[in-house]
């Protein structure tokens, strides 16, 4: 398993393994302390010699020394392991934060490019008369007009511009670009005389 700060990124299972190891060490420390308790309650600092300086004969000196030594070693391991757990958690959180920030930035960039890719409209379709050339071509109410033949946002002054283009294009297909539900749509429109008013309807 890679140590935190190693070449490969820390995973959640790495942290789980570290925590499992920490629990094992804690259990071993507890067992050693219980062993000392069983030896007439000698802790880590009780003297192992009697008043005259002889080794105590009421306890298992070997067991007590071994348990004390193990506790010191295990506590050092535990301390080092806690540091590893802490570092690993920091890395995980930092990576989560980074990923979250990256996802947000990407979403924002996506939204921005979506907006930039849609040209600006200069007029909006209010009504479309059934059976009219506009209706037949597929124009819909609320379509936002971006290009109408040669007219676009840069040269549009008023609706008269569109009327002029329509009169000059009678019987000839015109390319019309609209924005419909946030998407660019191309419509082929042929102005011509019909039962109603005008050449479009």
Beginning-to-end CA distance, first to last residue: 74 Å
The run of helices and strands is HHEHEEHEE
Strand content: 5-15%
Q: List segments where confidence is low: pLDDT < 50 over at least 5 consecutive residues.
A: none
Shape: rod-shaped
Number of helices: 4
**Alpha-beta content class:** alpha+beta
Largest sheet: 5 strands, antiparallel
Q: How many domains would you count in the coordinates?
A: 2
The total strand number stands at: 5
| Radius of gyration, CA atoms, in whole angstroms | 41 Å
Average pLDDT taken over every residue = 85
Helix content bin:
40-55%
Subunit structure: Interacts with PSMC3. Part of a transient complex (modulator) containing PSMD9, PSMC6 and PSMC3 formed during the assembly of the 26S proteasome.
Organism: Pelecanoides urinatrix (Common diving petrel)
Protein name: 26S proteasome non-ATPase regulatory subunit 9
Family: Belongs to the proteasome subunit p27 family.
Walk me through what this model shows.
The chain has 201 residues and is α+β, with helices and mostly antiparallel strands. The protein folds into 2 domains: 12-115; 123-189, Pdz3 Domain (Roll), CATH 2.30.42. The protein contains 4 helices and 5 strands; from the N terminus they run H-H-E-H-E-E-H-E-E. Helix 1 packs antiparallel against helix 2. The two termini are 74 Å apart. Residues 106-182 form the PDZ domain. InterPro entries: Nas2_N, PDZ, PDZ_6, PDZ_sf, PSMD9. Interacts with PSMC3. Part of a transient complex (modulator) containing PSMD9, PSMC6 and PSMC3 formed during the assembly of the 26S proteasome. Belongs to the proteasome subunit p27 family.
